[in-house]
Amino acid sequence: MRIPCLAFLAAVAAALAFVAPLAAAQAGGAANKVVLQVSDSDPAKWNLALNNARNIQTDLGEKNVEIEIVAYGPGIGMLKLDSPVASRLDEAIASGVKVAACENTMRGQKLARADMLPNLEYVPAGVTEIMKKQQQGWSYIRP
Amino acid sequence: MRIPCLAFLAAVAAALAFVAPLAAAQAGGAANKVVLQVSDSDPAKWNLALNNARNIQTDLGEKNVEIEIVAYGPGIGMLKLDSPVASRLDEAIASGVKVAACENTMRGQKLARADMLPNLEYVPAGVTEIMKKQQQGWSYIRP
Amino acid sequence: MRIPCLAFLAAVAAALAFVAPLAAAQAGGAANKVVLQVSDSDPAKWNLALNNARNIQTDLGEKNVEIEIVAYGPGIGMLKLDSPVASRLDEAIASGVKVAACENTMRGQKLARADMLPNLEYVPAGVTEIMKKQQQGWSYIRP
Predict the structure, then answer these.
(1) pTM (2 decimals)?
(2) If contacts are CB pairs under 8 Å, which of residues 25-54 in chain B contact chain A?
(3) Among B81, B124, B140, C112, which residue has the least CB neighbours within 10 Å?
(4) What is the tens place of the pLDDT at every residue in B116-143?
(5) N- to C-terminal Cα distance for chain A?
Protein backbone atom coordinates (compact mmCIF):
# COMPACT_ATOMS: atom_id res chain seq x y z
CA MET A 1 0.00 0.00 0.00
CA ARG A 2 2.79 2.47 0.80
CA ILE A 3 4.67 2.15 -2.48
CA PRO A 4 1.98 3.52 -4.80
CA CYS A 5 1.28 6.28 -2.30
CA LEU A 6 4.91 7.38 -2.33
CA ALA A 7 5.10 7.01 -6.08
CA PHE A 8 2.00 9.10 -6.38
CA LEU A 9 3.34 11.90 -4.18
CA ALA A 10 6.54 11.92 -6.20
CA ALA A 11 4.54 12.20 -9.39
CA VAL A 12 2.44 15.07 -8.09
CA ALA A 13 5.61 16.85 -7.04
CA ALA A 14 7.02 16.25 -10.50
CA ALA A 15 3.83 17.57 -12.10
CA LEU A 16 3.99 20.72 -10.00
CA ALA A 17 7.68 21.15 -10.73
CA PHE A 18 6.79 21.03 -14.41
CA VAL A 19 3.76 23.32 -14.35
CA ALA A 20 4.91 26.06 -11.99
CA PRO A 21 7.97 27.30 -13.93
CA LEU A 22 5.98 27.03 -17.16
CA ALA A 23 3.37 29.41 -15.79
CA ALA A 24 6.08 31.68 -14.40
CA ALA A 25 7.87 31.85 -17.75
CA GLN A 26 4.67 32.69 -19.60
CA ALA A 27 3.63 35.43 -17.20
CA GLY A 28 7.04 37.09 -16.86
CA GLY A 29 8.29 35.20 -13.81
CA ALA A 30 10.87 36.51 -11.40
CA ALA A 31 13.06 38.25 -13.94
CA ASN A 32 12.15 41.80 -14.96
CA LYS A 33 11.86 42.23 -18.70
CA VAL A 34 10.49 45.23 -20.51
CA VAL A 35 10.22 46.33 -24.11
CA LEU A 36 10.07 50.07 -24.82
CA GLN A 37 8.45 51.22 -28.07
CA VAL A 38 9.65 54.25 -30.01
CA SER A 39 7.34 55.05 -32.92
CA ASP A 40 7.25 58.86 -32.87
CA SER A 41 9.57 61.14 -34.84
CA ASP A 42 9.86 63.39 -31.79
CA PRO A 43 13.34 63.62 -30.17
CA ALA A 44 11.67 64.48 -26.85
CA LYS A 45 10.11 61.01 -26.95
CA TRP A 46 13.49 59.48 -27.74
CA ASN A 47 14.95 61.13 -24.65
CA LEU A 48 11.95 60.04 -22.60
CA ALA A 49 12.44 56.42 -23.69
CA LEU A 50 16.11 56.64 -22.71
CA ASN A 51 15.19 58.22 -19.37
CA ASN A 52 12.71 55.39 -18.82
CA ALA A 53 15.37 52.77 -19.50
CA ARG A 54 17.86 54.40 -17.14
CA ASN A 55 15.29 54.86 -14.38
CA ILE A 56 14.27 51.20 -14.62
CA GLN A 57 17.92 50.19 -14.32
CA THR A 58 18.46 52.50 -11.34
CA ASP A 59 15.30 51.33 -9.61
CA LEU A 60 15.77 47.58 -10.14
CA GLY A 61 19.52 47.26 -10.65
CA GLU A 62 21.15 46.88 -14.08
CA LYS A 63 21.70 43.16 -13.54
CA ASN A 64 18.10 42.48 -12.57
CA VAL A 65 16.32 43.68 -15.67
CA GLU A 66 16.37 43.07 -19.41
CA ILE A 67 15.43 46.13 -21.45
CA GLU A 68 14.87 46.30 -25.20
CA ILE A 69 14.07 49.50 -27.07
CA VAL A 70 12.38 48.88 -30.43
CA ALA A 71 12.25 51.76 -32.91
CA TYR A 72 9.98 51.57 -35.92
CA GLY A 73 7.93 53.76 -38.25
CA PRO A 74 8.50 57.46 -37.63
CA GLY A 75 10.65 56.46 -34.63
CA ILE A 76 13.44 55.01 -36.79
CA GLY A 77 15.17 58.41 -36.91
CA MET A 78 16.26 57.81 -33.32
CA LEU A 79 18.72 55.18 -34.62
CA LYS A 80 20.14 56.95 -37.67
CA LEU A 81 23.75 58.13 -37.80
CA ASP A 82 22.70 61.74 -37.32
CA SER A 83 20.49 60.98 -34.32
CA PRO A 84 20.56 63.73 -31.67
CA VAL A 85 20.53 61.01 -28.98
CA ALA A 86 23.45 58.99 -30.42
CA SER A 87 25.71 59.36 -27.40
CA ARG A 88 22.92 58.51 -24.96
CA LEU A 89 22.18 55.39 -27.04
CA ASP A 90 25.87 54.42 -26.82
CA GLU A 91 25.68 54.64 -23.03
CA ALA A 92 22.42 52.68 -22.89
CA ILE A 93 23.84 49.89 -25.07
CA ALA A 94 27.03 49.82 -22.99
CA SER A 95 24.88 49.38 -19.88
CA GLY A 96 23.14 46.35 -21.35
CA VAL A 97 20.07 47.79 -23.06
CA LYS A 98 19.31 46.17 -26.42
CA VAL A 99 18.26 48.60 -29.14
CA ALA A 100 16.48 47.16 -32.17
CA ALA A 101 15.78 48.74 -35.54
CA CYS A 102 12.83 47.65 -37.70
CA GLU A 103 13.99 46.39 -41.09
CA ASN A 104 10.51 46.89 -42.58
CA THR A 105 10.76 50.59 -41.79
CA MET A 106 14.34 50.78 -43.07
CA ARG A 107 13.28 49.25 -46.38
CA GLY A 108 10.40 51.73 -46.65
CA GLN A 109 12.71 54.65 -45.98
CA LYS A 110 15.56 53.26 -48.12
CA LEU A 111 17.90 53.07 -45.14
CA ALA A 112 20.86 50.65 -45.17
CA ARG A 113 22.73 49.43 -42.11
CA ALA A 114 25.50 51.85 -43.08
CA ASP A 115 23.05 54.68 -42.41
CA MET A 116 22.45 53.50 -38.87
CA LEU A 117 24.27 53.84 -35.56
CA PRO A 118 26.61 50.99 -34.55
CA ASN A 119 25.79 48.19 -32.10
CA LEU A 120 22.10 47.94 -32.98
CA GLU A 121 20.06 44.77 -33.25
CA TYR A 122 17.93 44.32 -36.36
CA VAL A 123 14.47 42.78 -36.37
CA PRO A 124 12.34 41.98 -39.45
CA ALA A 125 9.33 43.91 -38.09
CA GLY A 126 9.43 46.09 -35.00
CA VAL A 127 5.76 45.64 -34.27
CA THR A 128 6.01 41.85 -34.39
CA GLU A 129 9.05 41.98 -32.13
CA ILE A 130 7.06 43.92 -29.52
CA MET A 131 4.17 41.50 -29.88
CA LYS A 132 6.41 38.47 -29.40
CA LYS A 133 8.08 39.93 -26.35
CA GLN A 134 4.68 40.44 -24.75
CA GLN A 135 3.76 36.84 -25.55
CA GLN A 136 6.94 35.82 -23.73
CA GLY A 137 5.85 37.72 -20.61
CA TRP A 138 7.75 40.97 -21.12
CA SER A 139 6.11 44.15 -19.90
CA TYR A 140 5.42 46.82 -22.50
CA ILE A 141 5.97 50.54 -22.15
CA ARG A 142 5.01 53.00 -24.84
CA PRO A 143 6.55 56.34 -23.67
CA MET B 1 -0.08 -2.67 -6.32
CA ARG B 2 0.09 -1.90 -10.03
CA ILE B 3 -3.48 -0.75 -10.52
CA PRO B 4 -3.37 2.34 -8.31
CA CYS B 5 0.00 3.22 -9.77
CA LEU B 6 -1.39 3.18 -13.30
CA ALA B 7 -4.51 5.01 -12.21
CA PHE B 8 -2.34 7.60 -10.59
CA LEU B 9 -0.17 8.15 -13.66
CA ALA B 10 -3.31 8.49 -15.76
CA ALA B 11 -4.65 11.06 -13.34
CA VAL B 12 -1.45 13.08 -13.36
CA ALA B 13 -1.51 13.05 -17.15
CA ALA B 14 -5.11 14.21 -17.05
CA ALA B 15 -4.23 16.97 -14.60
CA LEU B 16 -1.43 18.19 -16.86
CA ALA B 17 -3.66 17.99 -19.90
CA PHE B 18 -6.11 20.23 -18.08
CA VAL B 19 -3.65 22.73 -16.66
CA ALA B 20 -1.29 23.24 -19.60
CA PRO B 21 -3.79 24.56 -22.18
CA LEU B 22 -5.42 26.68 -19.46
CA ALA B 23 -2.11 28.41 -18.81
CA ALA B 24 -1.48 28.71 -22.54
CA ALA B 25 -4.87 30.30 -23.16
CA GLN B 26 -4.41 32.80 -20.36
CA ALA B 27 -0.94 33.86 -21.43
CA GLY B 28 -1.66 34.10 -25.15
CA GLY B 29 -0.75 30.55 -26.15
CA ALA B 30 0.31 29.48 -29.58
CA ALA B 31 -2.02 31.72 -31.55
CA ASN B 32 -0.88 35.27 -32.25
CA LYS B 33 -3.44 37.86 -31.20
CA VAL B 34 -2.91 41.57 -31.05
CA VAL B 35 -5.08 44.58 -30.37
CA LEU B 36 -4.02 47.90 -31.88
CA GLN B 37 -5.23 51.09 -30.22
CA VAL B 38 -6.08 54.26 -32.16
CA SER B 39 -6.85 57.17 -29.85
CA ASP B 40 -5.21 60.09 -31.65
CA SER B 41 -6.93 62.38 -34.14
CA ASP B 42 -3.83 62.26 -36.31
CA PRO B 43 -4.21 60.61 -39.78
CA ALA B 44 -0.49 59.78 -39.70
CA LYS B 45 -1.22 57.59 -36.67
CA TRP B 46 -4.12 55.95 -38.52
CA ASN B 47 -1.80 55.06 -41.38
CA LEU B 48 0.81 53.82 -38.92
CA ALA B 49 -1.75 51.52 -37.26
CA LEU B 50 -2.72 50.15 -40.68
CA ASN B 51 0.95 49.68 -41.60
CA ASN B 52 1.44 47.83 -38.31
CA ALA B 53 -1.48 45.50 -39.04
CA ARG B 54 -0.23 44.75 -42.56
CA ASN B 55 3.34 44.17 -41.40
CA ILE B 56 2.16 41.76 -38.71
CA GLN B 57 0.18 39.85 -41.34
CA THR B 58 3.14 39.77 -43.71
CA ASP B 59 5.55 38.69 -40.99
CA LEU B 60 3.38 35.98 -39.40
CA GLY B 61 1.01 35.06 -42.21
CA GLU B 62 -2.60 36.31 -42.43
CA LYS B 63 -3.98 32.99 -41.23
CA ASN B 64 -1.72 32.84 -38.19
CA VAL B 65 -2.73 36.03 -36.45
CA GLU B 66 -5.87 37.72 -35.17
CA ILE B 67 -5.72 41.51 -35.32
CA GLU B 68 -8.24 43.97 -33.91
CA ILE B 69 -7.96 47.72 -34.31
CA VAL B 70 -9.95 49.64 -31.67
CA ALA B 71 -10.61 53.33 -32.29
CA TYR B 72 -11.88 55.54 -29.49
CA GLY B 73 -11.77 59.11 -28.24
CA PRO B 74 -10.04 61.46 -30.68
CA GLY B 75 -9.22 58.38 -32.80
CA ILE B 76 -12.83 57.78 -33.81
CA GLY B 77 -12.42 60.01 -36.88
CA MET B 78 -10.47 57.17 -38.47
CA LEU B 79 -13.74 55.27 -38.85
CA LYS B 80 -16.06 58.04 -40.08
CA LEU B 81 -17.46 58.06 -43.61
CA ASP B 82 -15.10 60.85 -44.62
CA SER B 83 -12.01 59.09 -43.24
CA PRO B 84 -8.89 59.65 -45.37
CA VAL B 85 -7.92 56.02 -44.76
CA ALA B 86 -11.30 54.53 -45.79
CA SER B 87 -9.95 52.47 -48.67
CA ARG B 88 -7.05 51.13 -46.61
CA LEU B 89 -9.54 50.11 -43.91
CA ASP B 90 -11.60 48.27 -46.54
CA GLU B 91 -8.51 46.31 -47.54
CA ALA B 92 -7.60 45.57 -43.94
CA ILE B 93 -11.10 44.31 -43.12
CA ALA B 94 -11.13 42.21 -46.32
CA SER B 95 -7.86 40.63 -45.18
CA GLY B 96 -9.36 39.59 -41.85
CA VAL B 97 -8.56 42.51 -39.53
CA LYS B 98 -11.42 43.41 -37.19
CA VAL B 99 -11.99 47.13 -36.76
CA ALA B 100 -14.02 48.25 -33.76
CA ALA B 101 -15.61 51.62 -33.03
CA CYS B 102 -16.25 52.80 -29.45
CA GLU B 103 -19.95 53.50 -28.86
CA ASN B 104 -19.15 55.66 -25.82
CA THR B 105 -17.17 57.98 -28.05
CA MET B 106 -19.84 57.92 -30.76
CA ARG B 107 -22.49 58.95 -28.22
CA GLY B 108 -20.25 61.77 -26.97
CA GLN B 109 -19.67 63.04 -30.52
CA LYS B 110 -23.30 62.45 -31.62
CA LEU B 111 -22.25 59.96 -34.26
CA ALA B 112 -24.73 57.34 -35.53
CA ARG B 113 -23.81 54.12 -37.32
CA ALA B 114 -24.94 55.84 -40.53
CA ASP B 115 -22.05 58.27 -40.06
CA MET B 116 -19.53 55.46 -39.96
CA LEU B 117 -17.76 53.32 -42.54
CA PRO B 118 -19.30 49.94 -43.37
CA ASN B 119 -18.17 46.57 -41.98
CA LEU B 120 -17.10 47.85 -38.58
CA GLU B 121 -17.60 46.10 -35.27
CA TYR B 122 -19.11 48.12 -32.43
CA VAL B 123 -18.04 47.85 -28.79
CA PRO B 124 -19.67 49.59 -25.80
CA ALA B 125 -16.36 51.06 -24.59
CA GLY B 126 -13.13 50.93 -26.60
CA VAL B 127 -10.95 51.12 -23.55
CA THR B 128 -12.70 48.19 -21.86
CA GLU B 129 -12.43 46.19 -25.07
CA ILE B 130 -8.65 46.68 -25.09
CA MET B 131 -8.48 45.78 -21.40
CA LYS B 132 -10.47 42.58 -21.91
CA LYS B 133 -8.36 41.50 -24.85
CA GLN B 134 -5.22 41.86 -22.72
CA GLN B 135 -6.86 39.79 -19.98
CA GLN B 136 -7.46 37.12 -22.62
CA GLY B 137 -3.77 37.07 -23.50
CA TRP B 138 -3.75 39.35 -26.52
CA SER B 139 -0.71 41.53 -27.06
CA TYR B 140 -1.27 45.28 -27.07
CA ILE B 141 0.26 47.79 -29.46
CA ARG B 142 -0.32 51.51 -29.13
CA PRO B 143 1.15 52.98 -32.36
CA MET C 1 -6.24 -0.98 -3.16
CA ARG C 2 -8.85 1.75 -2.60
CA ILE C 3 -6.90 3.76 -0.07
CA PRO C 4 -4.01 4.82 -2.33
CA CYS C 5 -6.49 5.51 -5.11
CA LEU C 6 -8.48 7.87 -2.92
CA ALA C 7 -5.32 9.43 -1.57
CA PHE C 8 -4.16 9.92 -5.09
CA LEU C 9 -7.37 11.63 -6.23
CA ALA C 10 -7.19 13.91 -3.21
CA ALA C 11 -3.62 14.80 -4.06
CA VAL C 12 -4.47 15.59 -7.69
CA ALA C 13 -7.31 17.79 -6.49
CA ALA C 14 -4.90 19.53 -4.13
CA ALA C 15 -2.40 20.01 -6.93
CA LEU C 16 -5.05 21.56 -9.15
CA ALA C 17 -6.31 23.75 -6.31
CA PHE C 18 -2.77 25.03 -5.93
CA VAL C 19 -1.96 25.57 -9.60
CA ALA C 20 -5.22 27.05 -10.90
CA PRO C 21 -5.38 30.19 -8.72
CA LEU C 22 -1.65 30.69 -9.24
CA ALA C 23 -2.19 30.84 -12.98
CA ALA C 24 -5.24 33.05 -12.55
CA ALA C 25 -3.37 35.52 -10.35
CA GLN C 26 -0.48 35.74 -12.79
CA ALA C 27 -2.68 36.29 -15.83
CA GLY C 28 -5.04 38.84 -14.24
CA GLY C 29 -7.70 36.46 -12.94
CA ALA C 30 -11.30 37.37 -12.37
CA ALA C 31 -10.69 40.85 -11.03
CA ASN C 32 -10.33 43.69 -13.53
CA LYS C 33 -7.21 45.74 -12.96
CA VAL C 34 -5.83 48.37 -15.27
CA VAL C 35 -3.00 50.86 -15.12
CA LEU C 36 -3.33 54.03 -17.22
CA GLN C 37 -0.15 55.85 -18.23
CA VAL C 38 0.07 59.63 -18.54
CA SER C 39 3.41 60.74 -19.97
CA ASP C 40 2.41 63.61 -22.25
CA SER C 41 2.29 67.28 -21.26
CA ASP C 42 -0.97 67.63 -23.18
CA PRO C 43 -4.10 68.46 -21.09
CA ALA C 44 -6.23 66.80 -23.78
CA LYS C 45 -4.46 63.54 -22.96
CA TRP C 46 -5.09 64.12 -19.25
CA ASN C 47 -8.80 64.48 -19.94
CA LEU C 48 -8.71 61.41 -22.17
CA ALA C 49 -7.11 59.35 -19.39
CA LEU C 50 -9.81 60.54 -16.97
CA ASN C 51 -12.52 59.73 -19.53
CA ASN C 52 -11.00 56.27 -19.93
CA ALA C 53 -11.07 55.67 -16.18
CA ARG C 54 -14.68 56.80 -15.88
CA ASN C 55 -15.81 54.74 -18.87
CA ILE C 56 -14.14 51.63 -17.46
CA GLN C 57 -15.95 52.20 -14.15
CA THR C 58 -19.28 52.74 -15.91
CA ASP C 59 -18.82 49.70 -18.12
CA LEU C 60 -17.64 47.26 -15.43
CA GLY C 61 -19.00 48.81 -12.23
CA GLU C 62 -16.87 50.85 -9.82
CA LYS C 63 -16.61 47.95 -7.38
CA ASN C 64 -15.45 45.48 -10.00
CA VAL C 65 -12.33 47.20 -11.22
CA GLU C 66 -9.09 48.57 -9.80
CA ILE C 67 -7.74 51.54 -11.73
CA GLU C 68 -4.40 53.28 -11.24
CA ILE C 69 -3.31 56.33 -13.19
CA VAL C 70 0.47 56.80 -13.21
CA ALA C 71 1.84 60.20 -14.29
CA TYR C 72 5.51 60.59 -15.09
CA GLY C 73 7.88 62.59 -17.28
CA PRO C 74 6.11 65.37 -19.18
CA GLY C 75 2.82 64.02 -17.78
CA ILE C 76 3.60 65.08 -14.21
CA GLY C 77 1.95 68.47 -14.80
CA MET C 78 -1.40 66.70 -14.60
CA LEU C 79 -0.86 66.31 -10.85
CA LYS C 80 0.49 69.76 -9.95
CA LEU C 81 -1.51 72.19 -7.83
CA ASP C 82 -2.33 74.31 -10.86
CA SER C 83 -3.53 71.35 -12.95
CA PRO C 84 -6.47 72.20 -15.21
CA VAL C 85 -7.96 68.78 -14.41
CA ALA C 86 -7.68 69.12 -10.59
CA SER C 87 -11.41 68.84 -9.91
CA ARG C 88 -11.81 65.86 -12.22
CA LEU C 89 -8.91 64.16 -10.41
CA ASP C 90 -10.66 64.81 -7.09
CA GLU C 91 -13.75 63.06 -8.40
CA ALA C 92 -11.75 60.16 -9.79
CA ILE C 93 -9.90 59.64 -6.51
CA ALA C 94 -13.18 59.87 -4.57
CA SER C 95 -14.58 57.14 -6.82
CA GLY C 96 -11.71 54.81 -6.00
CA VAL C 97 -9.14 55.51 -8.71
CA LYS C 98 -5.56 55.59 -7.43
CA VAL C 99 -3.43 58.36 -8.89
CA ALA C 100 0.33 58.01 -8.58
CA ALA C 101 3.07 60.60 -9.11
CA CYS C 102 6.59 59.60 -10.15
CA GLU C 103 9.16 60.77 -7.58
CA ASN C 104 11.99 60.47 -10.14
CA THR C 105 10.23 63.02 -12.31
CA MET C 106 9.47 65.26 -9.33
CA ARG C 107 13.14 65.27 -8.33
CA GLY C 108 14.14 66.14 -11.90
CA GLN C 109 11.66 69.01 -12.02
CA LYS C 110 12.38 70.14 -8.43
CA LEU C 111 8.81 69.49 -7.35
CA ALA C 112 7.99 68.85 -3.68
CA ARG C 113 4.85 67.17 -2.38
CA ALA C 114 3.65 70.65 -1.38
CA ASP C 115 3.57 71.51 -5.09
CA MET C 116 1.25 68.61 -5.84
CA LEU C 117 -2.48 68.00 -5.55
CA PRO C 118 -3.74 66.25 -2.39
CA ASN C 119 -4.60 62.56 -2.06
CA LEU C 120 -1.99 61.30 -4.51
CA GLU C 121 0.09 58.17 -4.15
CA TYR C 122 3.82 58.47 -4.66
CA VAL C 123 5.96 55.87 -6.42
CA PRO C 124 9.79 55.90 -6.74
CA ALA C 125 9.65 55.49 -10.55
CA GLY C 126 6.47 55.70 -12.59
CA VAL C 127 7.80 53.49 -15.34
CA THR C 128 8.77 50.72 -12.92
CA GLU C 129 5.35 50.97 -11.28
CA ILE C 130 3.66 50.37 -14.65
CA MET C 131 6.02 47.49 -15.35
CA LYS C 132 5.33 45.84 -11.99
CA LYS C 133 1.58 46.15 -12.41
CA GLN C 134 1.81 44.38 -15.77
CA GLN C 135 3.89 41.62 -14.14
CA GLN C 136 1.06 41.23 -11.63
CA GLY C 137 -1.47 40.73 -14.40
CA TRP C 138 -2.85 44.25 -14.71
CA SER C 139 -3.88 45.46 -18.16
CA TYR C 140 -2.09 48.50 -19.53
CA ILE C 141 -3.63 51.42 -21.37
CA ARG C 142 -1.57 54.24 -22.80
CA PRO C 143 -4.19 56.85 -23.85
Answers:
(1) 0.82
(2) 26-28, 32, 34, 44, 48, 51-52
(3) C112
(4) 999 999 999 999 999 999 999 999 999 9
(5) 61
